[in-house]
Amino acid sequence: MGVTTAPMRFVKGHGTQNDFVILPDPDVALALSDDLVVALCDRQRGLGADGLLRVARAGALRRAGVLTALPDGVSDDDWFMDYRNADGSIAEMCGNGVRVFAHYCRAAGLVETDRFVVGSRAGGRAVQVHSWEPSAAEVTVEMGPARLDGQATTLIAGRKLTGEAVDVGNPHLACVVDGLTPADLAALDLTQAPVLPAGQFPRGANVELLTPLQDADGDLDFTAHLRVFERGVGETRSCGTGLVAGAAAALHGVGRGEGTVGITVPGGAVIVTITPEQAWLRGPSRLVARGDLIDGFLGG
Ligand SMILES: N[C@@H](CCC[C@H](N)C(=O)O)C(=O)O
């Protein structure tokens, strides 16, 4: 008699069109190889996504050796976002991913409160689920501090640009381009990977391009438009950590260490609040489908 295995369940979701395959694997039963991640994220031969979020207990990941130690602010019982880029590489943090992960935890009944901690390799991230239903949620993530690490230059979209290196748990180079209009930004060709200065980004970096800040009314201090080329993926329609890095760099550029910025990306809009100690990312999450992988998916 053949051995039967449980089907591999998945959910598909996105945060401002930065899309993810969500794999519920609470006890870490799954061997999550690079090949499996790449195949699942492939838009022709798989489900298609910018990244993959394994949903597992932090303690189970530690016992399985996926984590060598629990990151700061993470406990064994916390739900942990084991994040992979579409090329299979591991990233420390994913801001849109945390919003979608929190929405999934709430909608799947894994947590029963609207405020809880999501584990990430960059540390525990407190989330506030403002509203949710099975397909849609609004979530704020405490992203930790956005640390400015000095200036660097890149070659991107045929231009040599200088920006701020920003650490949001993962590395970024955020470039505010003088005089750039939203229409100019939309017209840039971001198909080629940016060239980064040798030695300054040993782990690589995500690169953001932004329009200069515009004054805003109401709850916002400023608005801006942003596009991003993500490490391990390519251009995506949004990047939560990149939005925080972009806001921090743009505020720094106008001599401010704090402020609230509404940022539009190709996939939607979010609100970023920066203080010297903490950054917050508020935006939507959508869960769009669930299903089972067909046995032998990888073998084909
Ligand atoms: N899309 C994410 C960032 C994902 C990780 C990034 N590509 C990296 O390698 O650092 C976000 O929403 O923050």
UniProtKB/TrEMBL annotation:
<feature type="binding site">
    <location>
        <begin position="240"/>
        <end position="241"/>
    </location>
    <ligand>
        <name>substrate</name>
    </ligand>
</feature>
<feature type="binding site">
    <location>
        <position position="85"/>
    </location>
    <ligand>
        <name>substrate</name>
    </ligand>
</feature>
<dbReference type="InterPro" id="IPR018510">
    <property type="entry name" value="DAP_epimerase_AS"/>
</dbReference>
<comment type="subunit">
    <text>Homodimer.</text>
</comment>
<feature type="binding site">
    <location>
        <begin position="230"/>
        <end position="231"/>
    </location>
    <ligand>
        <name>substrate</name>
    </ligand>
</feature>
<keyword id="KW-0413">Isomerase</keyword>
<protein>
    <recommendedName>
        <fullName>Diaminopimelate epimerase</fullName>
        <ecNumber>5.1.1.7</ecNumber>
    </recommendedName>
</protein>
<keyword id="KW-0963">Cytoplasm</keyword>
<keyword id="KW-0028">Amino-acid biosynthesis</keyword>
<feature type="binding site">
    <location>
        <begin position="95"/>
        <end position="96"/>
    </location>
    <ligand>
        <name>substrate</name>
    </ligand>
</feature>
<feature type="active site" description="Proton donor">
    <location>
        <position position="94"/>
    </location>
</feature>
<keyword id="KW-0457">Lysine biosynthesis</keyword>
<feature type="active site">
    <location>
        <position position="94"/>
    </location>
</feature>
<feature type="binding site">
    <location>
        <position position="206"/>
    </location>
    <ligand>
        <name>substrate</name>
    </ligand>
</feature>
<feature type="site" description="Could be important to modulate the pK values of the two catalytic cysteine residues">
    <location>
        <position position="230"/>
    </location>
</feature>
<feature type="site" description="Could be important to modulate the pK values of the two catalytic cysteine residues">
    <location>
        <position position="172"/>
    </location>
</feature>
<feature type="binding site">
    <location>
        <position position="18"/>
    </location>
    <ligand>
        <name>substrate</name>
    </ligand>
</feature>
<comment type="similarity">
    <text>Belongs to the diaminopimelate epimerase family.</text>
</comment>
<feature type="active site" description="Proton acceptor">
    <location>
        <position position="239"/>
    </location>
</feature>
<comment type="function">
    <text>Catalyzes the stereoinversion of LL-2,6-diaminopimelate (L,L-DAP) to meso-diaminopimelate (meso-DAP), a precursor of L-lysine and an essential component of the bacterial peptidoglycan.</text>
</comment>
<dbReference type="InterPro" id="IPR001653">
    <property type="entry name" value="DAP_epimerase_DapF"/>
</dbReference>
<dbReference type="Pfam" id="PF01678">
    <property type="entry name" value="DAP_epimerase"/>
</dbReference>
<feature type="binding site">
    <location>
        <position position="170"/>
    </location>
    <ligand>
        <name>substrate</name>
    </ligand>
</feature>
<comment type="pathway">
    <text>Amino-acid biosynthesis; L-lysine biosynthesis via DAP pathway; DL-2,6-diaminopimelate from LL-2,6-diaminopimelate: step 1/1.</text>
</comment>
